Structure formats: C-alpha cells, structure tokens
Amino acid sequence: MLDAIRYEFVRLRSLRSTWVLFATGPVIQFLFALIWATHRDMTLQTRFDNAFIGMFLVLAVLPAVAVGVAAFGHEYRFRTIVTTTLTLRAPARILGAKAIVTALFGAVSGAALVAATLLAEAVAGALFTDGAAIGQAFLGAVVFAVLSCLVGLGVAAVSRNAVVALVAMIAFPTIIETLMALGKVDASLIPFSSAARLITTAQWSSPLALLVLAVAFLALSWVTLRRRDA
Amino acid sequence: MIVARGLTKRYGSVTAVDDLSFTVRPGVVTGFLGPNGAGKSTTMRLMLGLDHGAGRTEFDGRSYGELAHPARTVGVLLDARAVHPGRTARAHLRMIAAGAGLPAGRVDQALDRVGLLDVADRRAGGFSLGMSQRLGLAGALLGDPRALMLDEPANGLDPEGVRWLRDLLKGLAAEGRTVFVSSHLLNEMAVLADALVVIGQGRLVAAESTDAFVARNSRPEVLVRPADPGLLADLLGRAGFAVAPQPDGALVVATHDTDAIATIAMRAGIVLRELTVRHSSLEDAFFTATAGAAQFRGRA
Hints:
The complex is a heterodimer. In chain A, 49% of the residues are buried. By secondary structure, chain A is an all-alpha fold.
C-alpha cells in the first residue's frame, strides 16, 4: 500500500495544474475574506464566520475538489488507468491510495483556506484572534474540504469523466442543495450546506450527510473498479 | 515463459476472443499477428487481467495478479499515447517506479536505453508518436523484466527507430527473455519474429515458428524463363507439373524441384535463361492463413 501511496503522491505533485489549483482556493478565499474584513459595522467574529458561508466556501474549495476529480478523471481522459492498474493492480489499492492522497490534499487545502482568511483579516487590520473559534474553523474547513474532495474523487471514478464529475460537483451544492432547501428538506440532510456549519458551530453531527455521500461514492467506485474493464 | 489458456472475451453476443491458447517461449521474439479487429489488443488486455473474461495466462507459472513483483516480471506497452500530456517523461517513469517499488535510479537508465535522456524533463504532451513509443518502452523496461508484452511498438518510429527497436528486442530475447510483440508491419515482423501467434476473428490460426508458418501457408513455385516457352510448358504439363504461362514469356511452375525442370529442358534442348525458386513472403503466408478472417476491407 505504501508504494501505491507513493505512486499517487508522485502523480499528484508532478503536474503543474495541482499546484495552480492548490494556490487558487486560498487566493479566492483571501479575496472573500478581505471583502468581509472591510465591513467595519460587524464584529470580528461575524466577519470571520461570513468568509466561510454559502457559495463562498463552495467556490474556495472547488479547486481542491477539481484535484480530487482529476485523480480519477484524468486517468480515463488520458487512458493512464491502464498504467495505474498494471502498476498497483488491486482495485482496493488503487482506490485506497487515491482516497488517502486526495484526503490529505483536501486537508491541507482546507487548512490553507483558514490561513488565507486570517491573512486577509491581518492585511485589513481586522484580525480575529479567538483561538477556539479559529480552531473550530480549521477543523470544519478541513473536514469540509476532505469530504468534498472524496465525493469528487468518487463521482469521477463512477462517471469515468472529469467534466461530468466537475459539473456534478458544482451543481450539487449550488443548484440541487438550493432546491432541497426550498423543498424544506431537513437541513442536516443537505450534505454540503450541513457540513459547512461545522466551521462556525461545534455541531459534530453536521458533516454526517456529506460523510455518508463520500462513503457511498467511494463504495460505488470500488464496485465500478472491480466490475468494469480497465 | 508465457502460457495462455482458454482466453475468451465476449461483448454481448459478439465473441471478440474465442478460446485462445498458446505458449510464448523465452529466448526468441514471438510476433502476434492478426488483421484489424482480430482481437490482438483485447487478447493482450485479457492476458494481463485488464479486461474481464475467461481463461488464464501465466507468466512463469503465475497470473499477472499473483506476481510478487509484476514490473520485474513483465514489462508492458499497450498504448504509447496513454501518458498525461502535462507530465514530464522523467516524472511519468518516476511515478511507475514509485508504484512498482523500483529504485528511482532505474528511471534515467531506462530513459537512456530508449534514447530519451536528453528530453527527460520535457512534457510528454509535446512528444511525437515515435517519442511516445520510446517512453512507453522505457516504462516497460523499467523493472528489467524477464518478459515483455508490446502492442504495436514500432508504430510511429522512423526507419532508424524501427531498426533500433528490432536490435533491442532481438538483444533482449538473446538474453533469454520472453518477448511477445504485436504488429501490423508484416515485413518488419518477418525480420524480427522467430515465432508467431496468428489470430483471425478472435480464434487461433497458427502458433509456430515463422519459417514453419510461411512454409505451411505458401505454394512452392519456380520461375523459369525458357527460349521456347510453349514447348517447355507442354513438356512440363505432360510430366505432371502445374504450369502457369506469364505474359512476358516466363513460366511459373508449382514445384520446388528445379532439378526436374532443368532435366526436362536439357533433354528437349531448350535453353533456360532463368530458373529461380520463388519464396513466399510472410505477407503472402499471412494473407493465405487469414483469408476470410479480415473484418475490414477497402477497395484499391
């Protein structure tokens, strides 16, 4: 399994697009946070929290999700899945290595979003310094980014198409979840929106729906990898 | 040694590979021939477990999935273009080396062997098909494997590259490795392959030495150019030979027995200006063996 993880790490870090996407999320988050930091009429906590709400968080995490999507999407687009399958062989090893590396990438990306927010506030002279709230945001952003990236990975593995997977990953939290909210679906069952609440509140069960979605897609990916020809 | 037994692959009602069994021996280059759509690539994918189907292929007694160190046992090139265009040649091989548990030092050795060391840090997206083939070969050679399976490795190579590939594969076979190569280039295969596995419409047509295949699928012919074609044709016909007169006055006789023709001509006082045994090419033998098996035919 260690060799499989090494394979994935080399695969990930040897592409320029990985680094561009890794930097894009925090830049987007920095700009959002900067806008909120200038709202002098709000408390520091509100400005900090607002930088992570709704579409802002989805957009800031999207570049990291794109990396998760590409982990499988590019394999099929460039037909490198044959090389990967011949090298790593077992579907569980292929999926496991991708999931671990994607999750780690998501975790670092999530942490970078919080760091970018604090940097923006420092630049605007409105640095939020509540350690507990910042810790909560770190945890929430990491969990949100990790699970979002894993869902992206799973959707790409099942669809075998990076474009379809990326469109799904944009459409679900924006359009589908808005429709779910309008349809009065229990807020805790709306995956992305519910998981995002962990950033601002210590509601430990809030990422449960997104976790279930990620596990479901990873399980489907495993079945797909086993059943279909490489 | 590679032993394939009962390989079968169906797509719905279509049987792409039909109960194929053959052995690829070490120490020689074995060519894998078949018309377009015969199932060569599917067979190779089945052998490696990439496609789901029936049958089993063993590499030194174990299936690909059971091998302890697959990269050290079988080097594979199935699709030279299957490389991320944004990744450099060196990074592509480093990735494979990392996954296969091979030392990173093997990467530059493999690149050097295929002549790509100077462009190791160029992105594969800018490579020509020939360069991509060389990169694919480097990937196959990375683990210094005992067997090689290569699907159309000469595609896109320039004449120098084709010659280099021929020398490389013959050299690897001479070291005692098992080399299994598919190709559409029959003239190249005639020079390269010592043995052949020939398939048509997913079924085994032949699995034997190249010489035996050509001999079995060719008609014996002698070209004779006599001073008096009419008289010699008559005499040969009476002696039981099948004779085909040619427009330029030559005769094509269905035999390899030049002595008999020379004796008949000498006894009749006929001067012979040419008496040549015509050897069938691998191309002729291939078309004879796979007659009716070609799935796609155009018009000249």
